[in-house]
Design a protein that fits this description.
The chain has two domains: 17-85, FAD/NAD(P)-binding domain (3-Layer(bba) Sandwich); 96-181, Enolase-like, domain 1. The chain is built from four helices and nine strands, in the order E-E-E-E-H-E-E-E-E-E-H-H-H. The protein has helices spanning 70-85, 155-158, 162-166, 171-181, and strands at 27-28, 32-35, 54-57, 64-65, 96-101, 104-110, 121-124, 136-142, 145-152. It starts with 26 loop residues before the first strand and ends with a helix.
Length: 182
């Protein structure tokens, strides 16, 4: 497979001014290139987008969203490759990112923007109660369903919640997992 061009986007704000000649339906400088759930850019035949510049329609609620981490670009690239080849899509993945800040690994699995307003569900550590942040893991919920898990210096725990978030597990499932890990 060959492509006429490839684009790499790095950063949190899409810089799309160079695409002004494209149809307006495909271009929203604030929100990135609006794409289908398979990465096809709406209004532009034969063009797909991945990474920070791509705003993919959520297959569950239809709203466009961007996942700004290199892991998402890799996951999206697999979906686009399957779409280009006409193959069935790969299994869906759960968005994930991490950052090392001042000796503390911060990790997030899932989509916290889908959570209900209100308190987080503590799973490990005492950071939500004013204690040390290191070792804290908390869940974001929508109704009783876990939509995201965040961890601070707790990598050995956070990784164990990815499958629960992917499965749409309940808060009770997450609390049971926390009890098993403690």
């Amino acid at each position: 497979m060959q492509a006429d061009a490839g684009v790499v986007g790095i950063g949190g704000v899409p810089q799309l001014d160079w695409l002004k000649e494209l149809p307006a339906t495909a271009l929203d400088p604030a929100g990135g290139l609006h794409c289908s759930p398979t990465g096809r850019v709406h209004g532009l035949r034969g063009i797909w987008a991945v990474g920070d510049v791509a705003s993919w329609d959520d297959p569950d609620d239809g709203r466009p969203h961007r996942h700004e981490h290199w892991t998402s670009a890799g996951d999206q690239a697999a979906v686009v490759a399957h779409d280009i080849l006409g193959a069935p899509p790969p299994s869906s993945t759960v968005p994930y990112f991490w950052s090392d800040q001042f000796g503390l690994k911060i990790q997030l699995i899932g989509r916290p923007e889908l959570a209900d307003p209100g308190p987080l569900v503590p799973l490990h550590g005492a950071g939500l109660d004013g204690g040390p942040v290191r070792g804290t893991v908390a869940a974001y919920t929508a109704g009783s369903r876990v939509v995201a898990v965040a961890g601070f210096g707790a990598a050995r725990y956070v990784v164990r919640y990815r499958a629960l978030v992917a499965a749409g597990a309940t808060e009770a499932d997450a609390r049971a997992q926390a009890a098993d890990l403690t």
